[in-house]
Design goal:
The complex is a heterodimer of chains A (191) and B (391). By secondary structure, chain A is of the alpha+beta class. Chain A has one domain. In chain A, a hairpin with a 6-residue loop joins strand 1 and strand 2. Chain A is extended and about 60 Å long. Chain B has a single domain, classed as 3-Layer(aba) Sandwich (Peroxisomal Thiolase, Chain A, domain 1). In chain B, the strands form two sheets. Chain B has a nine-stranded mixed sheet with strand order 3-2-4-7-1-8-11-10-9, with helices on both faces. A two-stranded antiparallel sheet of chain B has the order 5-6. In chain B, helix 4 packs across helix 14 and helix 6 packs across helix 11. The chains are: A alpha+beta (191), B alpha/beta (391). At the A-B interface, helix 2, strand 4, strand 5, strand 7 and strand 8 of A face strand 1, helix 1, helix 5 and strand 5 of B.
């Protein structure tokens, strides 16, 4: 943290003119800087759109849907109403598997405002089986034990097959969270 | 690119404020510091400036809606044609591109470009301003934060090429050390790879010291048409090429291991600058480094290193200030600080001083003749590139 000083800094480097600025210390910032706290009451009623609405209906029914472009042949999910490359309607709907491959994952120990999380979140990009390679979406990984980087990395790797763990049908709301998370596919299922 | 522009455009002055965690100054005041310094070093007055381009990132940082217009006064834009250039983190270099189009088109001869960011106002943490960049229906219910996308991308980059976190931590070490010689620097330090990896894991594989800080600051340059530049400046630095490109916002559908959009932007800029062998013809690079791995990722996208091999080049000293291709000799965002839009303009300021041989303690050896500055942003989807040179 820079010292609270009105000082201008000049060094053996450009710009040869002294640089201006008045860094504040933590105390000054919290004690002396005028603060108004304002919680905006902004509520949005988002429309899911043509394609995502159908995708959400699919989730409610326990299915992951994708669309295929009849021009470039890509099969993608999340579905979209038009191919952003060919600019043609993307209306060839396909039901995809609820299995996927981990494209990448992370082990996140902080909230957005940098508060520590005891149990880390494991976000991942998962490539849904049946799509064009490297087509996936953001979701979470679950079903792993431990909370340290070492423990979690022992159970996960990029390229690993995973399977969606769904909410029970009556709990599903037609939302991305109808899939609770993706968990590693065990080679020898116990059940 | 359809046709090469005929009118040459030069940078003739540059200015900065200090980069700070928290500044007493308002965004307008910071902008004024940088803008007035750029004008002074260019030897022009505000009334000579015919148009102003302002770069500043999300309104939510300052909590002022349409803050581009609010900052107008500090940027010297009153009663002038004024534009806000805004493509997230890519805004800084994009503002120079916007200013360049205004001069290259023949519309104006003297344009002031200002980048400003005051992130500290946003409480409790400016990362909150980024929560709404995610898709409202299919991403936000999962509770994402900005660190996720960086850590996911870094891990993809590492796993695709077998890169270790030690290799990436070295970027923090280099840039924070380079910044020791930068008068505006906020987080300059002499650290080891061990220190970086000993800092907290925020979102593995990202450690705290691999993330650029929250910053307040401003930077500015003056752009001039050739006939004006030759009259006003003994050492104009020419904008030889510009390029920018955006990739799809379905970011999970992209190859996160390689920034193809940066390559597209670079190819456009190199084509305009007549560069066919960037590794031989570019002597200095200021790639965008908001996270340590991004510098390496971007050097590959800029075609200045082989895919997946930038970490090897870094380890053998190729990117040191005295190396074959010095990168971020300023200290970059990891060392000088990251007031978003101002940081991109700061990179262009650095090329301006380096190419004029005026960078003092930061000067790279060997009389560099051409450099590239690059910024990146939005939902990991834009590359903005500017090539500057002495001819």
């Amino acid at each position: 943290m820079a010292k609270p000083a009105r000082a201008v800094r000049k060094m053996d480097a450009p710009p040869w003119l002294a640089l201006r600025g008045s860094p504040l210390s933590d105390d000054e910032f919290h004690g002396k800087v005028s603060t108004t706290s304002w919680i905006p009451r902004l509520e949005y009623g988002w429309d899911a759109g043509i394609a995502i609405s159908r995708f959400l209906e699919g989730l409610k029914a326990g299915k992951i849907l994708g669309v295929r472009c009849r021009v470039c042949g890509r099969t993608v999910t999340p579905p979209r109403a038009f191919c952003e490359l060919d600019f043609r309607p993307m209306d060839d709907w396909v039901e995809l598997a609820d299995t996927a491959t981990i494209n990448t994952y992370s082990i996140c120990y902080v909230t957005w405002d940098l508060k520590p999380l005891r149990k880390p979140q494991i976000p991942a990009v998962v490539e849904i089986d049946g799509t064009t390679p490297r087509v996936g979406f953001l979701h979470l990984i679950g079903g792993v034990n431990g909370s340290s980087v070492e423990a979690i990395r022992k159970q996960l790797r990029v390229g690993m097959p995973v399977r969606a763990v769904w909410k029970k049908p009556h709990q599903r709301a037609g939302a991305i969270t109808d899939i609770l998370y993706f968990e590693p596919v065990k080679r020898h299922p116990e059940r | 690119m359809k046709r090469k522009p005929r009118r040459k455009v030069a940078v003739i002055g540059a200015g900065l404020s200090l980069f700070m965690r928290r500044a007493l100054e308002t965004g307008k005041e910071l902008s004024y510091y940088a803008a007035s310094q750029a004008l002074e070093t260019a030897g022009v007055r505000l009334k000579d400036i015919q148009a102003v381009v302002m770069a500043t990132a999300p309104d939510a940082f300052d909590g002022v809606h349409m803050k581009g217009d609010w900052l107008l006064d500090g940027a010297g834009g009153v009663r002038k044609p004024y534009t806000r250039a805004y493509v997230g983190g890519g805004s800084g270099v994009f503002s120079i591109i916007s200013g360049w189009t205004l001069v290259a088109s023949g519309l104006f001869d003297l344009v002031l470009v200002v980048g400003e960011e005051k992130m500290s106002s946003c409480q409790p943490h400016p990362q909150g301003a980024f929560l709404t960049i995610f898709d409202h229906t299919i991403e936000r219910p999962l509770g994402p934060n900005l660190l996720w996308i960086f850590s996911l991308e870094q891990h993809r980059y590492m796993s695709s090429y077998g890169i270790r976190n030690e290799d990436i931590a070295l970027v923090s070490v280099k840039n924070k050390r380079n910044a020791l010689n930068h008068p505006a620097a906020q987080v300059a330090a002499n650290l080891s790879v061990k220190d970086v990896l000993a800092s907290d894991v925020v979102a593995w594989p990202v450690h705290r010291l691999m993330v650029s800080p929250v910053s307040d600051g401003a930077a500015a340059i003056v752009l001039a048409a050739e006939h004006v530049a030759r009259r006003l400046s003994e050492k104009p630095v020419w904008v030889q090429g510009v390029g920018w490109s955006l990739d799809t916002s379905y970011w999970g559908n992209r190859d996160l291991a390689y920034p193809r959009y940066v390559e597209r932007a670079a190819r456009m800029a190199y084509g305009m600058a007549g560069i066919s062998e960037p590794r031989k013809e570019i002597h200095i690079a200021e790639p965008y480094d908001p996270f340590a791995y991004k510098e390496l990722h971007h050097l590959e996208g800029l075609l200045l290193a082989d895919r997946g091999k930038a970490p090897d080049d870094l380890a053998r000293g190729r990117f040191d200030r005295t190396g074959e291709l010095p990168t971020c000799p300023s200290g970059g965002l990891m060392g000088v600080g990251n007031p978003i839009a101002a940081a991109g303009v700061m990179k262009v300021c650095e090329l301006f001083w380096q190419l004029r041989g005026e960078a003092g303690a930061r000067q790279i050896p060997g009389n560099p003749e051409r450099g590239v500055a690059q910024a990146w942003g939005d939902l990991m989807q834009i590359g903005t590139v500017a090539v500057l040179g002495v001819h």
